Amino acid sequence: MPARSAFRHAPPKSIRLRRSRALPPRWRTGAIADDALLVEAAAWHARLARADDATRAAFAGWRAARADHAAAYARVCAAHDHAATLAEHDPLLALRGATLARTAAARRSRKRRWRVAAAGALVLAGAPLAAFGIRAFSAPPAPPPYVQTFRTGIGQQTDVTLPDGSVVTLDTASTLEVRFGAGARAAKLDGQGWFRITPGAAPFQIHAGGRDFTAREGVFDVRTDADRVRAFAAAGHLTLESDGSSVALAPGRLLAVRNADVVIRTPEDPTNFTGWRTGLLQFDDTPLAEAVAEFNRYSRRPIRIADGRVGALRVSGAFRTTGAPAFVGALTTGFPVRVQRDARDGIVIAAR
User: Fold this and answer.
1) Is 11 part of a structural domain of the chain?
2) Are residues 263 and 314 in the same domain?
3) So what's the pLDDT on residue 217?
4) Do residues 294 and 196 both lie within one domain?
5) What is the distance between the alpha carbons of residues 206 and 222, in angstroms, rounded to a whole number?
6) Which of 234, 180, 187 is CA-nearest to residue 214?
7) Given CA atoms 86, 87, 91, 96 in this order, what sign does their dihedral have?
8) Which CATH number characterizes residue 291's domain?
9) Which residues contact 335 (CB under 8 A, 6 or more apart)?
10) Residues contacting 105, CB < 8 A, separation 6+
């Protein structure tokens, strides 16, 4: 019992050190002592901003005295660096303003200064957590949509690779407007295009001649003319959306839309519609006026039909898209027509 009483009135030196003026009595053990070291380290960090040689020497002695002094100072420096990178974020601007206000009011008492210093150290130590919170709850800005327009001249063809890996081959004198973004894949076609559509999270939309088509994936030939829109499904399913209803186009089928009429059929030879990709125009009992219109799509010197009787003649055969002279020559030998050439009208086909 006497030994116990002596222990109570004569605490070990380590306990006397924890009651020293350097650390207030309420910071004695565990995490609270760590906070006190952070406060001391933060105070040294502030003093070193305008330090003379004597202050720097005193700081060097303090840091070398104990390993946890150096560790606490390193934490304060790291926290300052993190806080600097976030200095312009609105949440930290408000927090910094509030801390400065508390610091100004705390100058009235030493006890208040300790509390403000502790709050400042905790703010700095929490800077990495604040940085994480800002990054986690501030969603990155959405990337701008991909918007591009592609054109081909008369007689030209080109391949267009889209952001999702889909490829569109444009035929002569065609325009393709593409818009990708916000979960949408869309293209507007004027002319003719061979679409090779890759699978994607969003359906691929094709707007052509005032009509809307949709596909998930597949290969399709789509063409617009002044009076109709046609589409051929080489692979996959293409859906025509019209007036709240839909029409599905299966592989191997050709769709034609004129005004309110929709016709779907299976062509005997799809190359009559798709042969342009290999530079081939193929006619099978086709009106001459329609065959001439096909050649004119690829030539800057168009062929003109003089009268309706000539235009109604039916022709068959395969020609190159650049083979207008051979086509005209074949007409003069096999049909009752004559060909006139002049500088103003180019080639004119009239009845003989």
Assistant:
1) no
2) no
3) 97
4) no
5) 9
6) 187
7) positive
8) 3.55.50.30
9) 288, 313, 315
10) 112
pLDDT in tens, 249-296: 999 999 999 998 999 999 999 999 999 999 999 999 999 999 999 999
Quote the tokens at residue 300.
């800057």
Among 268, 301, 319, the domain-final residue is: 268
Asked if residue 294 lies in contact with residue 272, where contact means CB atoms within 8 angstroms, the answer is no
Length of the chain: 352
Q: What is the average pLDDT across 217-232?
A: 97
User: What angle in degrees, to the nearest 10, is found between the helix axes of 53-65 and 30-48?
Assistant: 160
23-62 pLDDT, tens digit each: 444 434 444 456 778 878 888 878 887 778 888 888 888 8
Which alpha helices (DSSP H) does the chain contain, by range? Answer: 2-9, 13-18, 30-48, 53-65, 67-85, 90-105, 110-125, 127-137, 271-274, 288-296, 308-311, 324-334
For residue 46, report the phi and psi dihedrals to the nearest 5 degrees: -70, -40
246 neighbors 275 (Cβ within 8 angstroms): no
Cα dihedral 117, 122, 128, 130, rounded to 10, equals: -100
Per-residue tokens: 19: 């009651």
Domain that holds residue 162: 146-268
Query: Under a CB-based contact definition with an 8 Å cutoff, are residues 351 and 310 in contact?
Result: yes
Which phi and psi angles does 207 have, rounded to 5°?
Answer: -105, 115
Q: How high is the pLDDT of residue 315? A: 93
Say if residues 169 and 193 touch (Cβ distance below 8 Å).
Answer: yes
User: Where does residue 289 rank: exposed (0-12), middle (13-18), buried (19+ CB within 10 A)?
Assistant: middle
Q: Write down the residue that tokens 């986690």 correspond to.
A: 136
Decide: 83 and 124 in contact? Cβ < 8 Å: yes
Residue type, 35: D
Q: Indicate yes or no: pTM above 0.85.
A: no
